[in-house]
Amino acid sequence: xxxxxxxxxxxxAVALFSPERGIVAEWVHTQMALHERHGGVVPDLATxxxxxxxxxxxxxxxxxxxxxxxxxxxxxxxxxxxxxxAVGLASAKALGLALRVPVWGxxxxxxxxxxxxxxxxxxxxxxxxxxxxxLLPHLGLVVSGGxxxxxxxxxxxxxxxxxxxxxxxxxxxxxxxxxLLGLGYPGGPLVEKxxxxxxxxxxxxxxxxxxRRDNLEFSFSGLKTSLRYQLEKMSLGExxxxxxxxxxxxxxxxxxxxxxxxxxxLAAKPSGASEQLAHGARAESLRRSAYRSIGLSGxxxxxRLLRESxxxxxxxxxxxxxxxxxxxxGDNAGMIGFAAWADTQxxxxxxxxxxEVRPSxxxxx
Length: 365
What we know:
This is tRNA N6-adenosine threonylcarbamoyltransferase. This protein is an alpha/beta fold.
């Protein structure tokens, strides 16, 4: 039984995870309403809220009969806000000492990359390893407020980062765009809501980096600048009248940029059709190299249009699509507990007292 803690940003979360039973229980305290008043996450306030709410969430876990079976504590080690991570790590070390169990550090981004498989584990449980193996190698798109990256999980569950963003992340671009449009925080869901009533073809915003097809890097800073230039040409009244169109066009540009890179990554691998036409040793080679599934995770994975677009791309390729459930797309401890068990290559099992906060941790670490 793994007791998992998450505090990388503005959610305080605790979960109990069992390899035999899945996520037994989980608790999350969100600070969204608090930070909304300030137009974004205030690190000092976020840290204070973690200090205030971890005790109650841990006490809720202690009241579960399964708590007596805890033999490991898993905690987000990074990336994230340093002070927020420190609160979680200190809590985990204290629990580890009190329970006399090891404390493992989990990479938050790697946990996002593995989170689409939580639902599969819940369905299969004892047969998970076999079913998971059928979906590997796996191509995952992780899209959150602070990170955008493409990752590959191979047959041995080794995670390799294929690309990241050279500037803004997709979620950050949506939030900054919302701010330019005079919307509130968090901006992404507000842009999505207004976009449903707008024309996505009304404005032609850039789709990130072009160039060579094998360039998988993301870039969204130019998109934000393009929106600013467009707004400078418009009167306030026109912006108000065309707000839905602006949101729809801006959101579509973000999604098209994500899909373009996802398609490029798929094109770099042999296709399923090539595999079916091959024979003998070549067929085996293709089987081991072609992607067997596509994944989508991270907070922005809650965007309905993005989910539909990734699902459509997967269907065209004849591949299963694994999308993180809504409750496991944002910051949550369920995915930390699951990754502590499923990510056999990326967990830091350093002595519990030597475990350190790593706010700039990369997905490949």
